[in-house]
Amino acid sequence: MRDAGGADRRQEGEPQMRASRCRGRAGLAATFVALVGLAVACVTPPVDPGTTTTTTSTSTSPTLTTSTSTSTTTTVPSAHGAVQVSNGGRTACAVVAAGNVYCWGDNWSGSLGSGTPSTGLSRATAAPVVGIGGIGLLTGATKVSSGSDETVCAIVDDGAVACWGDNHTGELGNGSTATFSNTPVAVTGLTGATDISVGFDHVCAVVTGGAVQCWGNNNYGQLGNGTTALRREPAPVTGIQGATRVSAGKSATCALLADGSVRCWGSEQFGQLGNGVYDTFPDGSGRFSTTPVAVIGISDAVDLLLSERNGCAIRATEELSCWGFGHVGVFPNSAPYTATPTGYIDVSELALLGSDTTACLRRNGTVQCWGNNPMIVGPPHTLPYYGPPVTISGLSDVVQISGDLESMSALLSDGTVMNWGRLMGYGGYTPPSSNVPVAVVGLP
What we know:
By secondary structure, the chain is mainly beta. It has a single domain (38-439), classed as Methylamine Dehydrogenase, Chain H (7 Propeller). It is built from one helix and 31 strands. The strands form eight sheets. It has a five-stranded antiparallel β-sheet, with no helix packed on it. Strand 2 (52-61) and strand 3 form a beta hairpin. It is globular and about 50 Å long. It starts with 37 loop residues before the first strand and ends in a 5-residue tail after the last strand.
């Protein structure tokens, strides 16, 4: 997030990550990853959205000209529950069975997509995102990704992408130089998207045929197009074909290819490209790659997650291999710069939080966590807690997890979304944090 003058308020050590992979519910089969915004969803056909009432609102921002938008309130559809969730740490969003997107949490850059002013109107209950230009509701969504710098993007009908929230470095992808949008805008020229991942201040999408397109900040080559020039509209990543997943981190990006290999590009400050190289300069200015490089030691990946400092892959054997800076999250006492087995098996999904100081696994319908965040790991453990992972009480039949910063979400098989850690919404919850999962209110 940035201040009113456009300066980046997040320090290099601050976190930025989330991961998601789900196997669907109600008989639907799908898998996906969401890190640093990498979110893919279980696809459910939309149903009749019901009756609508229309209201008009006007919003003003000190950094954006006054705009008037029309929003539509829709009767709760007959299909209920979420089918995918993406927790960006400050704003969380879910795709629901009817194909709408619901968001809750902070709204400093319009990341709730409600069309309301972005000056602190956070929300502790889920509410629907309005449609492009503020008309009606956003419909036809299949996947949503919420980034840790308050940009959110969703794949909608026919593989088009809509984004809203922060736009200081062109994250909305529509060519605009406005600093934010509190209503969704269409990403220019992007069709056939099958996966989407919002990083700290850049966004990447897999499109039909397996190419990857990225836009936004590019100071470390995280757009993968051979340059370090910022892009406000999508540009293809050099040399990527056959991609099935993409995961955007803080200043790097990784893609999973159909052959099980992984390619990464961007900053090598923490060894997060997995090619055996790391940067010895504290500000990360010394080493980066503007084009993809192969992660060493991975040839059978089925899922992928890239955080601020780590990259991880779930292998065909459901074993977890990771690379990059160790810290508490995955490797407490070492820092492997090529893919290295972690010893964790039977893993369906991974989430890394808080500059990778806390980690959670999804295993056999449960969630297990360890690390340095008492609200995520829970008492009575002395922190940092290196494991074995603690099973989070009160959660069963979990089909997807997603987390970032100090907040975790779990999607249950019945469509309920549970949150714990920082509950988001700035005071809407009492208390504002919980080490016990609580159900998100307001989802249909």
